[in-house]
Amino acid sequence: MAIQNKSKLHIKASLTLALIVLVCSAVHAEIYKIVDENGRITFTDKPRPNQNAKTVELLPLNTQPTHHAPTSTPNKKAAKSKAPSASIAITAPTDGTTIPTGQRTIPVNAAVKPYLTAGQRIQLYLDGTPKGSPQAGGHYTLTEVYRGQHTIQAAIVDKHGKAVSHSKAITIYVKRQTAPKPNPAK
């Protein structure tokens, strides 16, 4: 495995060097303009001896200086104390959504801004009860949700399971088919 990585690195370095050599040689090459007996113009870097070739003066290339972003090494203690507090929101379904009769699963998405920090996870709640284990991603699928009105909420929890931030609770309405009542015998 290490030999393959070294080989790939060697190939990349060789190709990069070859490209630099080609670019540099092209920059310093003389360019000639040749007009033949039919008036066709040809530009070349290698004119033939029997051609009436004239050297072309090339304008300098349009270049821009590179921009170097300032770099700094933040103090680790300051970085920990300045860690942004994350907020969480349910992005799907929206508040007031009605889940139709045939839909058996309910996809739920929670978005965290700006981001989860080390050890944090997202916990989903249905009617105030945790659903599954806390996880790093914000995509859930609720199954076997009974008909009626339900609330969904998400929370950011720390590594000990303590909630550090809650989303606004949203309300959904689940429709389920009921079995028809049998007709009384006459």
Structure, briefly:
The protein is α+β, with helices and mostly antiparallel strands and 186 residues long. It has 2 domains: 2-56; 84-174, Immunoglobulins (Immunoglobulin-like), CATH 2.60.40.10. It contains 2 helices and 12 strands.
Helix content, binned percent:
10-25%
Overall shape:
elongated
How many domains, in number, for the residues? Answer: 2
Query: Spans with pLDDT under 50 lasting ≥5 residues?
Result: none
End-to-end gap: 82 Å
Just name the CATH architecture of the largest domain: Sandwich
- From N to C, what is the helix and strand string? HEEEHEEEEEEEEE
| Name of the CATH first level of the largest domain | Mainly Beta
Number of helices: 2
Question: What's the CATH topology label of the largest domain?
Answer: Immunoglobulin-like
Mean pLDDT: 79
Report the sheet-strand fraction: 35-45%
CATH superfamily descriptor of the largest domain: Immunoglobulins
Q: Helix- and strand-based class?
A: alpha+beta
Q: Supply Rg.
A: 34 Å
The total count of strands amounts to 12
Main sheet specs: 6 strands, mixed
